[in-house]
């Protein structure tokens, strides 16, 4: 019986992928084998010694102490792409809201008073204050061409926009899915100097913090609209507000309200709605639940932010899963222990990622406690378990 601790409400569609005859799931549980969460901040949490996996029902893992868990030999799974359509639709919504001045126009309409004839008169007199622009022929820049960025690019092309993309680490899969009509920028600065709208789809790391700042704003087109539905901190909010007040930036649409932003007439702030659709929540929960289950039951790893991708079909006998520091001679030491304790290897797969290495070994018969203890005693071994 595997024990699963949920730190947030997880969609039932995802939890149903964990059969109750093999899984106990609760928001309060001792000695969990795995943790499922969405936005709960784990950084100050004491990590249970029993923990074998963490599953984030979403893409970002800023709320999870990934480095600490790596040192304990615990993989962190996420659900990249599961909420991509939801975020794409919100980016398009943000562009349309800004282009047509929808939010100030709505505020104006809601503030109208008098009889219907009087309101009609006020409408005709006031609508000139909300003249907007159309998207076809305008240029959208997309920084980050993962699952979300590719969908945003392709949708903007379908709306008749010119699209420029930038991602030095684009995957082969994303490249295949990206419209051939999307122009490729040579750098962030190259892209920013060419666009009327710019949308960010990158994680928040040192290299992306304040990617939009005062210096870069000077080299952008007058009237540019900035969209940030990725992570708070990618855009220097203070610099953008100054640029708006100076007439340089035409508008700012983001998912991260603050006292600085929420009441500004040319800023639209939404309450972190990027992945807030029923479909996205279900997709994320299903994906991460299936990945955690596959790891717990078979040791296979898919969509982990700290472990290598590993998949090995089950053979006869028992499976051994070993996490260790990525240093020389580890595989030889593990194989030697198995040989010395009389365990014949049927199949083996070893992969590494950064400072971690992960090995699956199928052996004939069952692995006894003496063998496990010897493998655990190898310097650099972080965790070992039988499946």
From TrEMBL:
This is D-3-phosphoglycerate dehydrogenase. Catalyzes the reversible oxidation of 3-phospho-D-glycerate to 3-phosphonooxypyruvate, the first step of the phosphorylated L-serine biosynthesis pathway. Also catalyzes the reversible oxidation of 2-hydroxyglutarate to 2-oxoglutarate. It comes from Thiohalobacter thiocyanaticus. The keyword Methyltransferase does not apply. Pathway: Amino-acid biosynthesis; L-serine biosynthesis; L-serine from 3-phospho-D-glycerate: step 1/3. Pfam families: 2-Hacid_dh, 2-Hacid_dh_C. PROSITE patterns: ACT, D_2_HYDROXYACID_DH_1. Residues 319-387 form the ACT domain. It comes from the Bacteria. InterPro entries: ACT-like_dom_sf (IPR045865), ACT_dom (IPR002912), D-isomer_2_OHA_DH_cat_dom (IPR006139), D-isomer_DH_CS1 (IPR029752), D-isomer_DH_NAD-bd (IPR006140), NAD(P)-bd_dom_sf (IPR036291). The keyword ATP-binding does not apply. It catalyses: (2R)-3-phosphoglycerate + NAD(+) = 3-phosphooxypyruvate + NADH + H(+); (R)-2-hydroxyglutarate + NAD(+) = 2-oxoglutarate + NADH + H(+). Belongs to the D-isomer specific 2-hydroxyacid dehydrogenase family. It is an enzyme of class 1 (oxidoreductase). One of its GO terms (molecular function) is phosphoglycerate dehydrogenase activity. Keywords: NAD, Oxidoreductase. SUPFAM superfamilies: ACT-like, Formate/glycerate dehydrogenase catalytic domain-like, NAD(P)-binding Rossmann-fold domains. Its EC number is 1.1.1.399, 1.1.1.95.
